[in-house]
Structure formats: structure tokens, C-alpha cells
Amino acid sequence: MGNPENLEIVPSPFPEVLKDLHSQYKSLQEGVVANYIPELAKVNPNLFSICIATVDGQIYEVGDYQQLFTIQSISKVFVYGQALEDHGRDYILTRVGVEPTGEAFNAIILDEQSKRPYNPMVNAGAIATTSLIKGSGPTERLNRLLDMYRRYIGRDVFVDISVFTSERSTGHRNRATAHLMLNFGMIDQNIEEALDLYFQQCSVMVNCRDLAVMAATLANKGINPITKEKAVDNRYIKDILSVMYTCGMYNFAGEWAYNVGIPAKSGVCGGIIAVVPNQMGIGVFSPLLDVRGNSVRGVKVCEQLSQRLGLHLFDCSRQESI
Question: CA distances (Å), 102 to each of 76, 110, 112, in order?
Fold first, then answer.
């Protein structure tokens, strides 16, 4: 074998790609910030960051990657994983389905035959999933979720009380959805406790780097690539990534699968996570949203990353690893 010192070191393409995409889309002003939750309407629309975390623990970031924001619907991915660990996939499937709806994320609809919410990535399914988190009371259930976030991120997190209170006081549509599910036996505990926990899980503060590490943990078979701590049992990774792929981008999921081709989840905070199994996690944050509730810049960045790096899962011409 030759001298290792003579081996050529190929630089990562990520720093230049991220810098280029951030520069390309920074001036894009399409979309509006979420305003149906009063506290979210206060966010600076110019915030913009992109991060990549690889399964071997490398972090690449550009823009406002330390800016904190509430995780919102991206939380559904990780709470679903916690529910799977608490009850197993067979039981969870009796309460929440896995079919995409083609409807808006807050549609008040259930499967006509089974009376289940269609999937855990829309509000109805997420509320049902959250209601299944184990604990002796509201405090223990919240602490279990906060500890779950800690394992994925690698640091303690907290709930933004102002956003939680704002969501709680304006969440009438979610409350109506919960009552509908109670009527069909899909929620079997105190509705207000379940909704409070749901609003709290959505109001946890994260930054773009956190999103990338959380996504990379899923890409790394449930092991946080920075801390090496197990965040979720690897037997449930395929379940989590499957519903992300088919349902994670709301009624944009089909177009996302066609154009980007990797599991992802968006939130009305303006965040998007995307997972390239066995390779990396991607986090993008930009609060300007399209009509479906997805980050305008975030979608465009992920489309470009998929094309430039060959990330689409069904692209036969893509490299096996980056």
C-alpha cells in the first residue's frame, strides 16, 4: 500500500454549495409569514439559514443558523417515533393511519371506514399520536418529550411560553378536531391535556443546526452523530421515514417526492428537515411560506440540493455516497 500521506484529500462540496444557494435565494421575497398564530406573525421574514449534518458528525452551515424558532409541525416526526417506542407499530396503526390525504395540514377529516386520522403528519394524526405518549401526568409526559428532543439534538431544549399560550388560545380548529376523534374513540384521555402537550411540543425552541442534527440522527439509524446517543430504536426508522416521504410536506408531498425525492417534514415556522438515509440530514429555515404552509426558500434550496448532489432516492445515476 502507498503512503497514506500521499493520498489526495478531496474537499467536501457542501460549503460552496450552501454558500451559493444561500446567496442565490437570500433576495427571494415570495410568500408570507404564518399569521394564524399571533406570535408567529412577529418573526423576521428575512431570516434564512441552511445546514447539513453528516452521519459521521460533520456540520456545514450558512446564514442565521443560530437563530432560535419554534419547531412547530416538524415535531410530529419525532413524537411519532416516541409513540412507536411507547406502544409498537401494530397498536399505533389502530389509532393513526399512514395514507396521504391530499388535503391541507389542518383539515378536519378522518378515514370514513376506520375513523382514524389519515396519518401522523397532519394535525389530526399528530394530536392522536401525542395523546398516546406515556406518563403518569402532564408534567411527566412533557418531560419525556423534552428528553426525547435532547437525545436528537444533543442539548436541553425549552418551550416558548408565549408561543404555547398563543397557540392554546387560538387553537379552536385543533380543538374541534380533537372532539371529533374523541367521538370515534381515537383519543381516550382528557382532551385539554392532549392538546396542551401538542401545543407544547410544537412550541419547543430549536435552530437550523438542531434541525440538521435531528435529521442526521434519523439518517444514522437513530444514533445522534454528534453525541453518539441513541435517540430512537432503529426498528422504527423505516416507519418514520416512510410517512415523512409520503405525507411530510402536506398536500405538496407528491410533487416533493417527484422533484426532491427524499423524506422530509415542514413546519409553519419556516423550517424544513430532509433525510438522506445513511448519509446526511438537511435543515433549512426561512419563515416566508407558500399557500400550502411550506417555506418558499426551503423548498427551492432542497430542490437544488437534490439536483446538485444527486440525492433523489430513485435517481439511478446518482452516486452511492457523497
Answer: 18, 13, 15
Q: Residue 177: which region, alpha, beta or left (left: phi > 0; alpha: psi -120 to 50)?
A: alpha
CA 197, distance to chain mean position in Å, is: 17
Asked if 269 and 34 count as a contact pair (C-beta separation under 8 A), the reply is yes
What value does the mean pLDDT take over residues 184-210?
90
Contact 268, 72 (CB under 8 A): yes
Residues 62, 209 contacting (CB under 8 angstroms): no
Prediction pTM value: 0.92
Catalytic residues: 73, 76, 198, 250, 268
Q: Cβ(315)–Cβ(32) under 8 Å?
A: no
Q: Which residues pair with 17 in a beta bridge?
A: none
Distance CA(143)–CA(103), nearest Å, equals 32
What cell does 196 get?
A: 396542551
Q: What tens digit of pLDDT does each residue of 228-242 get?
A: 999 999 999 999 999
Is the pLDDT assigned to residue 108 strictly greater than 70?
no
CA–CA distance, 265 with 208 (Å, rounded to integer): 13
DSSP letter assigned to residue 284: E
Which grid cell sits at 247? 405525507
**Cβ neighbours of residue 88 closer than 8 Å, sequence gap 6 or more:** none
Cell numbers of 198, please? 401538542
